[in-house]
């Protein structure tokens, strides 16, 4: 490989890494906005811990975990559907 190929490869790495970082930053900001809106970081939500993480850790059967995960996802989809006119939800 000559130096031109190295420079091109380096430029591609920089471009892809910076765009990925920007996308992650926006993703985390949207999550924080939603947590604030739904009061998810308040200590009285699941005693300050994650809502479903303890349940998932204690269940051993993979089928049980799949069922609860599908229920969690469907709950949040319904929740977002009810709040679809809210500006914070629309931006996310």
Automatic annotation (TrEMBL):
The keyword Glycoprotein applies. GO terms for biological process: adaptive immune response; defense response to virus; humoral immune response. Keywords: Antiviral defense, Cytokine, Glycoprotein, Growth regulation, Membrane, Pyrrolidone carboxylic acid, Secreted, Transmembrane, Transmembrane helix. Homodimer. Interacts with IFNGR1 (via extracellular domain); this interaction promotes IFNGR1 dimerization. GO terms for cellular component: extracellular space. Its main location: secreted. GO terms for molecular function: cytokine activity; type II interferon receptor binding. The chain crosses the membrane at residues 6-28. SUPFAM superfamilies: 4-helical cytokines (SSF47266). This is Interferon gamma. InterPro entries: 4_helix_cytokine-like_core (IPR009079), Interferon_gamma (IPR002069). It is found in: Secreted. Belongs to the type II (or gamma) interferon family.
